[in-house]
Fold this sequence. Notes:
heterodimer; A: alpha+beta; D-amino Acid Aminotransferase, Chain A, domain 1; Dna Ligase, domain 1; four-stranded antiparallel beta sheet; 10 helices; globular; B: alpha+beta; Immunoglobulin-like; 3 domains; 50% helix
Amino acid sequence: MIKFISPTELHKLGIVGMNARNRRFIMKNNPRHLYPLVDDKLETKKLAKKAEIAVPELYGVIETVGQIKKKLHKILDAHEEFVIKPSKGSGGNGILVVVAKTPNGFVKPNGEEITHKDIFLHVSNILSGLYSLGGQLDTAMIEYRVKFSDVFSDISYQGVPDVRVIIYKGYPVMGMLRLATKESDGKANLHQGAIGAGVNIADGVTLGGVCHNKVMNIHPDTEKTISGIQIPYWKTILEISAKCQEMTGMGYIGVDIVLDKELGPLILELNARPGLGIQIANNEGLRKRLDKIDAVVGEEREVSERVAWSMQNF
Amino acid sequence: MKKIVFYSMIVGLIMTALSITIYKVTILDFSLTPGSSKENWSVEAKVQFKAKGGPVKVSLFVPPVYEELVSLEENITRGEYTLFEEKLKYGKKVIWAARKDDEKRTFYYRLDLFKGAPKIKEELSTVEEDRFMPDNQKANLKSLVARTHRKSADAETFFLRLRQNLDENSGDVKSLKKYYKDKGGITGLIGDALEMEKIKYHFVQGLIKESAGKNQSLKSYIQVESDGQLLSFDFETGEKGLPENFMIWKYGDDPLLEVVGGENSKVTFTLLKESIPVGKVAELRYAFQKRGLAMFSLMALPLNQQHTFRLLLMIPIGALIMVIMRVLVGVTTSGTFMPILFALAFQQTSLLTGLILFAIVIAAGIWIRSLLTKLNLLLVPRIAACVIVVIFIMATVSILSHQLNIVAGQSVTFFPVIILAWTVERMFIHWEESGAAAALQKIGASLFVTTLIYIALQSDSIKHIMFYFPEQILTILAVIILLGSYTGFRLLELVRFSSFKEEKVND
């Protein structure tokens, strides 16, 4: 039996629908010409560097096929472990992680060994646009491999747990911890079956989780409880997220952050069209929080003040 | 934009459309519903040629009918050509003439037909004159006729046997065919043979009012008198009898079109079913011209273009349905406007056939595309390869269904190839990224919307309104703009966010 909820009830709860998100928040606050700043991870990284926001260190960039022969091996030689990703990739596709080197080649996280040739082929695939949206030509980024913090190892299956924070006009609005599952194939993408767990903005403790729009409080693969976990560096996470508004000039963005064991929170990427599933994960609508921010937005505040305001109010 | 401007724009669009429609209905007496008299046809002959630079005289044979309208293109009304009519015993000739011309020209001749247009009775050719021909050819002809005579019983069997003999291509037939090459061809040869056998006959050319269609050409029949009965045969196939809905255009073997001073001439016909009484069409056209409202009337266009517009005007309906499904319901399709194009294609194939063919082509396409994936091709070559694969699959489906005698399968050719290729590519990528279930769900949603649009496009009432009241696209535009500013929930979001309700009950 399909369950329905009436539109008036949704409205009362302050849920934001797709149409409202597009017209009221994205179109009004995110000017078109700024999109390349967030759609291209290389651009985002440059901006973040300028704004002194921590990102995984960029080891090198391969822009043309010619550079694969001339430049790539130098970059690879200099580092023991690294990640290669397309700068315009979507949905976590095209990411190659190397965790160690052997005399003959490289080792992937699952223990599989690959050769130089495999890596060259992967990079040339990236350049040809195999993983980018719409197949446009792309560049390959080689960057620092994040060493994931242990906090989430109990509640994430293999892949990358990350924190998504929605920033509206510089204020943190809502947060979510995204946990990979067997179904999502190690990716933290809600569409592919990852779990989204709401996070209390005030203290960074996880609320219950949601998978495929359904409530799920216990991780299906690790069978551990998802709620009640303290996310470390929570205030820092909110602060660097909030900084992204000034950095990009966009009024409504989703900021994806990973936690490194040694370096703390690092910004992975930004999203100009953040999904609405975060409302289900937090069991709360966005509208009331957004309205509250709109009411105070005239007052000029520093990043730390804005974060403090959000932590107090949400 | 201020709200007041926005809404007055919407109201303005709707009011404009509404007032034109009201004017048409009340003053010009347009009918809002499709008329009952469906058996009215408009025929349009399109004459094309390239003038050589000197004097030009174009004559087109047209049949006599109760009412006719000659519709000419601008270049004639500009006075370069003069129009004549020459009465013939049966029907008449329309002649365009000019002293000097070197342009490519297109003339239209248009004819509106009532149900049961007067049938023309024509006497059969009488055989008397002994045409001049060289003795050896005469001997050849005589031997052919004698051979045919021996192996036949009456006029009917004589004609059929004659056709067989002509097909056999014996020595004398070959020589005769060569001789007749510039003397009326096979038609002339058959004519002379029948004359020699003293069989009364004549040639008939006409159109089959089967389906409204563009660029048809005349079909030829021969009628022979056998035991006082008039028998008709398809000139190409020898099949007996005239089709039931055959409309005779001309008798005799005189050429349909003669162009003096021009080259590359041809004449094609477009047939169009009129859904309002033909007499009315004439009246309306007149009324429009008199009131200077011709620009609002698509009926003033040549038939060929009308035919195109009938389809074009349905696209806004499709677009409206797409917008409703996306904004109000929340269905996302593969390729935003793909369902419109397929709904149009399904008009030709019928819905069920279309869906089955679509499934076959897409399934085969995705399978071949998965083989291509190992090649790691760049995007544009990949799509190009997909296009070729799709054409190949379509050809295979067509050939197979032809061999298996499934007529429906052959209509696969109406599918838009490029869109199909993109659909295959998108579905495949979606399959890879989000799994088979998601891909099938998306294609299912696309086909669901396609079906909805198909049903809307099939409606006679909608067709009628859109063609005779094209100003209504302004209303559709207004509704689409209005929907574009809708920020409420989508129907499917009521399901997506339903978990909020559960929580409440638990509390």
